Amino acid sequence: xxxxxxxxxxxxxxxxxxxxxxxxxxxxxxxxxxxxxxxxxxxxxxxxxxxxxxxxxxxxxxxxxxxxxxxxxxxxxxxxxxxxxxxxxxxxxxxxxxxxxxxxxxxxxxxxxxxxxxxxxxxxxxxxxxxxxxxxxxxxx
Length: 141
Hints:
The structure is a single chain. With 141 residues, the protein is mainly beta. The protein contains three helices and eight strands. It has helices at 11-18, 57-61, 103-110, and strands spanning 4-9, 22-30, 33-44, 47-52, 71-81, 86-98, 123-127, 131-139. A hairpin with a 4-residue loop joins strand 5 and strand 6.
């Protein structure tokens, strides 16, 4: 019998857990099939915000070619302690779009998303949560 329980998290708790920012994984349908990539992110104005390289495979895959169209993605953030076998996971689903030059990009710059890898990462991508779910695994009481 397992000594762990799974607890569903409400949206407020999910947002509290992910609000400091950190590392998450974006999942999307690429030209070559389903792709999942780690990115560092920040929460900004109720959205997930991250930076990437312009003209990169991620940049190209998230372009719809239709003005105003957005690409549906999933974004997962977790914190797992493998020793105690406890932790939490939050899944955000919604549209992603390239941040436009001007006021939107200026606000994104001020959000403080600093990419970890070296090199130019001047493209900001924003994910607008349409659905937020999460769960926590705990030691049984």
